[in-house]
Each structure stands twice: as C-alpha cells, then as structure tokens.
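Two folds, back to back.
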Amino acid sequence: MPSHSVTVTHLSALNRLIRLPLSAMVALSAMTGALAANPHLSGLTLWALVWGIFLLSAASSVFNQIQERFTDGLMRRTCHRPLACGELTAATGMWIGVLLGSGSLVTLFAATGTTTTVLGLLAISWYLLIYTPLKRHSSLAVIAGTPCGALPPLIGWLAAGGNPLGPQALTLMLVMVLWQVPHYWLLALPDRDELKRVGFKVLPGKLSRHQLLSISHFWILGMVTTTLLLVPMQLVQQPILQGLITGLALAFALWSTWAQKKSLFVEKTASRLRIGLHLYLGLVLGIILLDALLIRLIL
C-alpha cells in the first residue's frame, strides 16, 4: 500500500509538471495539421510526430515551471505545482526537462526531418526566452506568445509534405492564434490582483475586468469567423462535417455572446467561457481529424 501511494503521488506530480491536458491538446493540433495536409500519411510518421510534439510541449512546461517556481508558489492557481510546492527540486525538474526535450527533438528529426526539428526548437526557445520573460514587462507578452500555439499545427503540416505558405496552413494556424489570446486572458482574469502583486504584467492595467471580458469576446468571435473559413479552404471536405463545423461555430458564437452579456460576476463568466473555448477547440480539431480519417478510409 505505501509503495502504491508513492507511485500515485509521483504520477500526480508528473501530471502537473508536464500539464498533461495542455500537452495532449498541443499534440492533437500537430496531428490535425498533418492529417489535414495528407490524410494518407504513414502511421509510423504520424505516431512519431504526435509523440515528438507531446514531449516538446511537456518539456516546455517543465522548463517554464523551473523559471517561475518562486512566483508560482505565491499564487493560489499555481502554488500546487510540484516545483513551486517543493515536491520536486529544480535540479530534478531540469533533468526531466532535458530528457523530454532531447527525446522530442531526436524523435522529430528521425521521423520528420530537419525543418520540423528546427521549428520545434524555435517553438520551445521562443516560449522560454521571449514569452516567459516578457510576461514581467508588458501585456503584449500574450500576443508575443502566440507563435508557440501556431507552430505545432505548422510542424504537422510540414511533416506531411504540405506547403507552409498555403492558405490552408495559414488558416489553421490563425485559428490557434485567435484561440490562444482569449484563453490566456480568461485564465488570468480571476487572478489579476495576484499576478500584479508578484510582478506579472500579462493583463492590460488600464482596462477593467468587464472591458477585458468584452475584448476577449471579440477575439472569440474572430476565432469563430476563421473557423468558418475551414470549409471553403477544404480543410473539412465531407458535406455532413462541413455542416457540423458551421453549426458548431455559429452556436458557439451565439452562446459566448449570451454568456458575455450575463457578466455580472466576471470571474464566473471568464471560467465558463474558458471551459467553452477548450471544448470548442477540441471539437474543431476532432472534426478536421474525423474528416481526414474518413478520406483515408474511403480513398
């Protein structure tokens, strides 16, 4: 029993260290980009791509928590992260991060080539050296961090042999960019005072909570509009799935507008919209993947 408890504790710490749900979503976006570019991509390449991007995202999370372990320990939302609360030492975290990061880059290089590996290295470098330090200096850090969310589907697209400058790839990347900004603002909004106290300037200081909620909603509407472009761009080709993604986009636009207008309690509304954003992106990526898998089976 004691050994079982220790194992569960270690797995729980690892889950929080690599931020499993987020890393899985990043890997899913890369898989979506790959199958949208080439539904008949070999299973081995696809498998290696997904694992490579998952490990890359996990490594980014570990290194980020090493950088921010002291400030993480001062905020309610992050104080239970394993490095912040002392479950793991910084040295242990560094070893884990190096193993995950090197494993990611080796996997990407072996399976997908030099260009995608360089982009993977660029993504983690940008996240740790540009976005993370900038959070202490400017609210534009959230905008500056958007390449980190846009690069995984681009890496998938390139791994499948797609044109990185084509309108389809750019549309898919734009969906991720427009999702990322309101997602972070809605996550940070309830913790605005704590973030300011520990030195982060990720939210515009001159805007009220209601104004930030309204601006987040405009970003959401921009993301929904871009989602509608997935159909004419032929990123979704099956008629029934085209109708499904169009209906989903319109329904989410109406629901988010209704939720934002009912913003008497900003923190509660921000939490509701953030959960909705996660579900929406997951469904959009799932529909694109389903379309690619149907093409793979039919043709």
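---
second:
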Amino acid sequence: MPKMKTHKGASKRFSQTGTGKLMHRHTRRAHSMISKSPGQKRRLYSESVLYAGKNKSVGRQLPYGVD
C-alpha cells in the first residue's frame, strides 16, 4: 500500500495541539476592519478549536497529522 499524501493547503491552515485537537485561524480578518467593532476584532485575534463536524473531513486531508 503506498503512502497517503498530506493535503498541503490543509497543513498550512490547521495546527494541532498536544492533545490532538485541530486549531484554525478565524475568518473575516482580511479586510474591512474599519467597520468592525474593537471587541469583534479582539475576538478574531486568537486561533480557535475546529468544531466537531469538520474534524472528520480535515482529518482525511491530514492522514499523519499536521506537519
């Protein structure tokens, strides 16, 4: 059986914690920041845990974990 390939786009967008959870950056950070409230911008700073419904599909793209 050949080795499975890692989806390189997914490996650049997701990181893995020590316990195996997948983290991702928030969306809506690229532009139009002037119209967002300071509180909303502050909440978008940090990474967040990927929700459970997406874990299966992203996990298929990262067969050996995040590089």
